[in-house]
DNA sequence: GATCCGATTCGCT
DNA sequence: GCGAATCGGATCG
């Protein structure tokens, strides 16, 4: 794939490459836990001037609305978290710790806050690009965390609140996805809502975030 | 305005 | 296992 084709790559090109399709509006307009589970095994694709990067999602977390104490939506609508109430099937990217970005897929019907945080994935396309952006070459270190995968895929806050239906940033579902064994746990890195088992990941995957690779 | 702190990562002990 | 990095958003005055 040369530089010129990268700049002009179509959604159809990527869909053929990955043998996958765009989910419809109703896929996203559901409870975030349902969407979260169905996003495992799907692809996240990002394209910019450097080229195409894609991962196979293996770890996600669901976040609710005003009733979920761990959610950014818990304290109501602000300029930052507004995408969480917007129409489903778009992105919510936020900046945190003064240096990191995290990528969410917006779920639930419009007007109901909900999102799925993508926490980890297996690099599928553009490993060279990811390696350069991350500054490290160990494959399992490229996308094994929510901020790592954003850095590897060139995702920042300029990509927040965009609809996930173009090569710039999209989710694609494999046409023949095999049954996936999914485990669940409490969400990571939060203080409240630890009682809710809303983290989901593929059983035995070596690509999940490091904190759980070696459980005590 | 001032202060607190985070859906994290990395390097060092 | 612990703390620094680093800054915008949220909260309170």
UniProtKB/TrEMBL annotation:
EC numbers: 3.2.2.-
NCBIfam families xrefs: 3mg (TIGR00567), PRK00802.1-3 (NF002003)
Pfam family for this entry, one: Pur_DNA_glyco
Species of the source: Thermobaculum terrenum (strain ATCC BAA-798 / CCMEE 7001 / YNP1)
Protein name per its UniProtKB record: Putative 3-methyladenine DNA glycosylase
Listed GO biological process terms: base-excision repair
Molecular-function GO terms, alphabetical: alkylbase DNA N-glycosylase activity; DNA binding
Superkingdom field: Bacteria
UniProt record similarity statement: Belongs to the DNA glycosylase MPG family.
Keywords from the named record: DNA damage, DNA repair, Hydrolase
């Amino acid at each position: 794939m040369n530089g010129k084709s990268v700049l002009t790559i179509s959604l159809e090109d990527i869909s053929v490459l990955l043998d996958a399709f765009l989910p419809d509006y109703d896929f996203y307009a559901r409870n975030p836990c349902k969407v979260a589970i169905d996003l495992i095994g799907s692809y996240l694709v990002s394209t910019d001037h450097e080229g195409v990067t894609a991962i196979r999602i293996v770890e996600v977390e669901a976040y609710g609305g005003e009733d979920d104490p761990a959610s950014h939506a818990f304290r109501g609508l602000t300029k930052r978290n507004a995408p969480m109430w917007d129409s489903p099937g778009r992105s919510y990217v936020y900046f945190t710790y003064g240096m990191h970005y995290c990528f969410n897929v917006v779920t639930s019907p419009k007007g109901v806050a909900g999102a799925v945080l993508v926490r980890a994935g297996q690099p599928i396309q553009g490993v060279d690009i990811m390696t350069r952006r991350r500054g490290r070459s160990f494959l399992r270190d490229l996308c094994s965390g929510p901020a790592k995968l954003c850095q590897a895929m060139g995702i920042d806050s300029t990509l927040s609140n965009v609809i996930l239906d173009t090569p710039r940033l999209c989710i694609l579902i494999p046409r023949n996805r095999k049954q996936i064994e999914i485990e669940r746990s409490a969400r990571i890195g939060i203080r409240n809502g630890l009682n809710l088992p809303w983290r989901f990941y593929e059983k035995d995957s070596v690509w999940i975030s490091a904190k759980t690779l070696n459980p005590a």
